[in-house]
Amino acid sequence: MAEVPHLTLCCAAALLIPFPATSSRAQSIAAPWGGYGHDAQHSGISEVASQPLRRVLWRTPVDLAPRYSGTALLAHYGSPLITRLNTVIVPVKTGATDGFRVEARDAADGSLKWMLPTDYSLPSHGWLPSYNIALTPKNRLYYPGAGGTVYYRDAPDLTNPPPNSTGQLAFYGLTNYQAAPATYNSNVKINTPITADRYGNIFFGFQVSGATTPALQSGIARIAEDGTGSWISASAAALDAGIVKVALNCAPALSNDHRTLYIGVSRGNYSGGYLVALDSRTLAPVSKVRLKDVLHAGDDALLFDDGTASPTVGPDGDVYYGVFESSFYANHLRGWMLHYDKTLAVTKTAGAFGWDDTASIVPAYLVPSYQGASSYLLLCKYNNYAGAGGDGINKLAVLDPNDTMADPATGATVMKEILAIAGPTPDSEFPDVPGAVREWCINIAAVDPFTRSAIVHSEDGKIYRWDFASNTLLQTLTLTAGIGEAYTPTVVGVDGTVYVIANALLFAIGR
User: Whole-model pTM above 0.85?
Assistant: First the structure.
């Protein structure tokens, strides 16, 4: 198989590299950028206008020992978080193959406010999984620890935590962990980002590789705001004994009323599975849907541990989840963006790309040319990999989830393209493929309603503003020389500063 969706990167510095600070002041917003995709629905929508992409304000490593595979960096990195008071909290990989810490930096100049080590270790993997943290509405920071435990820190904007503002929790009981920490550390690993609901409860997937007391199985955990833990196995969530794990890197999503939790579960790496819906208060199974290929409806779509696709919940409650095609190269390694109603009982039209992608929500009024009936659209990556049978014209697309078209590549009925834009940089790896361009490197894009645009990153080492009104890449800023990279998110801070990860560095960008 050709390198599964090829990604790129370049050399990382190990020290903070400061640049002149922005003069913008932080704004008060209803919700900060509290986790992967901004919120529990993974909308990717910013609550403030993003600053112009004029210059790098500061940058800092998110990986102190990046490991390259030839000309590629196949490592996913966790999303930075932004508090209401404009502290940037960054997950950082510290070792060559494992080890993480959490850093808090002042958004104005990137100066370090505090740093916390962690004892977290990664589950088994191919590409480096992401280490993701979460911020609750009450400004409590949660970050994964060893043995499936979670640490917390209150008042993360303060350099020194107040008394009794830190601690460790275990969804299976901290006394159980303390009775056999070595056993739990070896056998239980958090394997997804943490998602927080509006009440301060958190959810995540975990992977079990050996015996524990009490006996745990890989599944989904909930820790309530008061520290009470509960869990359900992945097989029980799907009501299928063949299901063995939660999909690696799959951030749980919550319905708009926060009562239903959505997450992908699988039979193992490169295998089929389900999207399951659970009661967010009890983790009791509510519904499920077997993930199916669009071209070959009788075949299971595949879930890859190398990806980061996570469910997105639309404003109307519909659920979107990216998967891989059932037969390699049948869809040029693009996968599908599967689409269901909120009950998962109704399968709707899919998008033509789903590999390692989480759809962002684009309110329809942001696209002046749109004349359809949908109240919102979806922003998806739309790469068409030359090395996998595609034309190499790697695009971004805004799709209508309620209208259809025939996919030019496969003839499948898919969501209608409303806007599409190709990457601007020729791909030197495919000089004989006319029009081949470097691919887009986002797993979820930040959407800015105030400028009718999205912030997107390419493996050409540049960040772009995609303007929906003109369908052009209105602003461009070079960050690195470009390299094949695993996909990462873009983020907008409370003062409009834009954050993007490129070549193992977090860049703060603005005016």
Answer: yes
